[in-house]
Automatic annotation (TrEMBL):
Protein name: 7,8-dihydroneopterin aldolase
Catalytic activity, EC: 4.1.2.25
Catalytic function, reaction form: 7,8-dihydroneopterin = 6-hydroxymethyl-7,8-dihydropterin + glycolaldehyde
GO biological process, one term: tetrahydrofolate biosynthetic process
Boundaries of every Dihydroneopterin aldolase/epimerase domain copy: 4-115
A Gene Ontology cellular-component term: cytoplasm
Gene3D superfamilies tied to this protein: 3.30.1130.10
Pfam families: FolB (PF02152)
Function: Catalyzes the conversion of 7,8-dihydroneopterin to 6-hydroxymethyl-7,8-dihydropterin.
Length: 117
């Protein structure tokens, strides 16, 4: 198995439990780590997962749907990626909320989930 990683997909979306988060929106960052069997296969896009398609898929879901929890967004992304991209054997999805509304300074908050076939 090999790994294909999209690290740091930056999106502007309206996720969160507070009304101002829906109204104003915020920056979110998504990481997608996929294990794919591509060693020894031909040098063509059909022999692996098309990370451009994964990027567009993540962008569409994360910007067109609203979730109250980043945990729910991460879980939904993981489920949908596994359904849509058959070459992905194992998956880790992280959704970061770097500017979470907290009463102090925190570098990052993220939720992580994983799936395996």
């Amino acid at each position: 198995m090999g790994r294909v990683v999209l690290a740091g997909i930056e999106l502007y979306a309206r996720h969160g439990v507070h009304a101002e988060e829906e109204k104003l929106g915020a920056r979110f960052v998504v990481d997608v780590e996929m294990e794919v069997a591509f060693e020894g296969k031909p040098d063509v896009i059909t022999s692996t997962v098309d990370y451009g398609s994964v990027f567009r898929f993540v962008q569409k879901i994360a910007t067109e749907q609203r979730f109250y929890l980043i945990e729910a967004l991460a879980d939904h992304l993981a489920e949908e990626i596994m359904k849509r991209f058959a070459d992905v054997q194992k998956l880790v999805v992280r959704v970061h909320k770097p500017h979470a509304p907290l009463p102090g300074v925190v570098r990052d908050v993220f939720a992580e989930t994983s799936r395996r076939r």
